[in-house]
Give the backbone structure.
Amino acid sequence: MKTKLMLSGVALLLGTGYGTAVLAQAKPEVLVKQRQSAMTLIGKYFGPIAGMPSGKAPYNADTVARNAGYLDVLVKMPWDGFTENTKDEKTRALPAVFTDTAKFKEGGDRLQSMVAQLAKVSKGGDEAAVKAAIADVGKTCAGCHENFRAK
Ligand code: HEC
């Protein structure tokens, strides 16, 4: 009897869409961990190619093509973790992330288009174009970190 009542309560919640909305709300500390994990992987796959334009790392077209393909997906991931309810968590995200949201979004969008460009040219075999695209991505990382990430 009790079970039946509880089940109909759950059905009612799900039926109104309210139940699913509540279940989908991730905890702030989970969102922080997820966005930092995405950034960590972005660092993992950008790191080895970042030094190629300057010659600090030897140019390797296969590594660039592989990493650019991974990055093309990874750079879509961090942004939905920078929600208002995470602003009081202890992280390296500066308060500007939550006040200057348009500029922060612009930086995220810019990163996605720069990486898409890199992924595209990395298939073409034009070393100069690939190096220029890597440098553009690097500038986009640095530009956003300068304004939105604590040192
Ligand atoms: C639009 C802004 C923006 C762009 C573009 C951006 N980042 Fe970040 N990044 C951040 C912010 C904000 C943090 C701090 C997140 C936190 O502490 O919750 C961060 C953190 C990181 C971290 C540390 C993660 C951790 O575990 O604390 C790494 C590594 C990183 N970014 C690498 C990169 C690389 C590499 C690029 C470019 C390919 C890049 N980011 C582009 C905003 C950006």
